[in-house]
Amino acid sequence: MQQPDAQDTIQISSAAMQLRCGFRWLRFEPGLETAYRVEQFRGGLKFLRVNLAIVAASLLVVFQIEYVVMPAIGAALPGYARFGVMTPMLALALALTFMRRAEIWYPRLIATLMPIALMAVAWLGLWAWGLGESRLFVRLIIATIAAYFLVGLPFRSALVAGLIAIGFYVAAAIAVDMPALVLTNFFCMLLVANLMCAAGAYNMEHTRRTAWLESRLLDELAQRDGLTGIYNRRRFDEHLARVWQQCVREHRPVTLLFADIDHFKDFNDRYGHQAGDAALKAVADVLAGVARRPLDLAARYGGEEFAVILFDTAQENAARIAEQTLEEVRKLNIPHAGSTAAPMLTISIGVACVVPMARRSPSGLVQLADQALYAAKDAGRNQSRLLQAEYEHMQTGYFRRHMLKGDGQ
Length: 409
Description:
Layout: H1 4-11, H2 14-21, H3 30-43, H4 45-69, H5 71-76, H6 79-83, H7 86-96, H8 102-130, H9 137-149, H10 155-175, H11 180-222, H12 233-250, E1 254-261, H13 264-271, H14 273-290, E2 297-302, E3 305-311, H15 315-330, E4 347-354, H16 362-378, E5 384-389, E6 401-403
Parallel strand pairs: 4-5
Antiparallel strand pairs: 1-3, 1-4, 2-3, 5-6
Helix pairs in contact: 2-11, 4-7, 7-8, 8-9, 8-10, 9-11, 10-11, 13-14, 14-15
């Protein structure tokens, strides 16, 4: 009995689901959100550094022009106050971009620093206003624009920083007895500036996120098999290399299942290629159901052969999973009168389970799983065989192996 909804589940990727559901609040589901932020930060890192350097240098020039052209500002604030807010913060932000794992630490630190910097700029403007110089208020507007567009803050963090600055400015202005009419004027200008920046930043980030999802979706489609909807050989090779390295670092086992449809050529000859395609899709659905965890993967390896990567799966579980997979394919009840293994469509499975080592490559695991598959075929098909590598006895390029006997093997 086939499962008609399974194929749809395979083909709808996380990026496609996110595009379908939308992201009105500019947030993806957790896995996509993390990937988006990391890729966006790394991709725009060079431009972020340029922006920070340009803004810092521009502020230094503006401060000097103010000191020369408008001496009243220089008289209103001492030098350390004029230079001691945004410029050091920008310099620190630029330094943070060179940290290890900056894609993790920079967004967190800048989201904390920016509200503090805006409040400091607001306080300096109020200080200068108390001394009779109101023109420094424009610095708060400039700092607000920088928070939304130039320092790498996402929309939500920039909006929070802007709202904190507005609230602080109003509270501090009341504390220093600013006349209500003057405060209303400054508040309205600050609010309008935030609204305009927020609208622009929201639209810009929404467009950027949409483009990222579409690009990711196209990449995912390029890595899927056109007939079955599961991943293709290219994605299999990339994922196996990635999982192998992670298992090396964490000293965890990795299992590889090779599955082959028994007597598939005879099936095509007897029932036709359309029936053959339907059979491939049905088997792919079953194997996709095996690879449910984030680091597991099911792929069409070629022709009627499939592969499943199982992260952190020991040999006992691997043998059990292989037997369950054999049974699920039998339950499809697809007639196969030309098979010598059974009257219905069946598969043979070769299972390899190893704990990767840094001096070994994934090609050995592929070789071992392939040998296990041939062992299952030689034993009569419609069954599984599990081989385990003995690392301590390996010779370069070859696996010394032994057969693990168990149920159904």
